[in-house]
Structure formats: structure tokens, C-alpha cells
Structure prediction request, 127 residues.
Amino acid sequence: MSLTVPADLITRAQEGPIGDAEFVDCVRTSLPYAWEVVSDVAARSGDGVAEHAVPPPSETERGQLLRALASDAIRGALERHFGVKLAFQNCHRVAAFPPAAVDGAGYREFVSPRAQIRNQTPELRDC
Prediction:
């Protein structure tokens, strides 16, 4: 399961839309490691890029990061909440870019096939 969702939030979601604030709070409490990584890179991004490139301490944390960044809904809510564009290369390499930098060379390089290939070292193949 990706998120631990309170029963009242599930009921409200079945009845109609829920706001980003409630959803983001659910993500924050359900995926604390992913929240920590994303909030850190978002806070450090400022006018440029901020990266996190430290492998997660366990499979639990790795799973949290993968779920947060692989889900369009979660990733989109985090991007809106923090006001950044998130980029993801593997099980631990995450970057935050200010929205204005998405058209820039730094973003294009981070999301390029070349950068993805260069980031595939033998010790990361199983991530």
C-alpha cells in the first residue's frame, strides 16, 4: 500500500474532491522518508538545482521514495506544495528545480538519457 489513509479521508474522497493540503498531509505522514528528501531538496533549490544522492538507509525508505516519485498524483501534489519541479533518476537520486529552470540546460541534462546511463554504477544496479 502506498499511503496510510484515514477512514474519514477515504470516505470524503469517495463522495467528492479533496484538496491538495489534505492529500499532501497524508503523503507527509505516510511516507516520512520521501517527505524528508523532497522537502530538503525543495528548500535548497532556491534559484538553481538541489540534489539528493544518498542511498536510502533501508528497503522501507527506498520504497517510500519510489512510491512518492512514481505516482503522478503524489509527485504532482509535492511539486505544487513545494513550488518546484522534481526530477528522479533512480532509487535515490532526486533533484528539485525551480519551475523557471525546467527549460534550462541543467534540467535537460539531469533528465537526459546520458545522465541516466552515467548514473548506473554497478553498486546501484539493484535499486
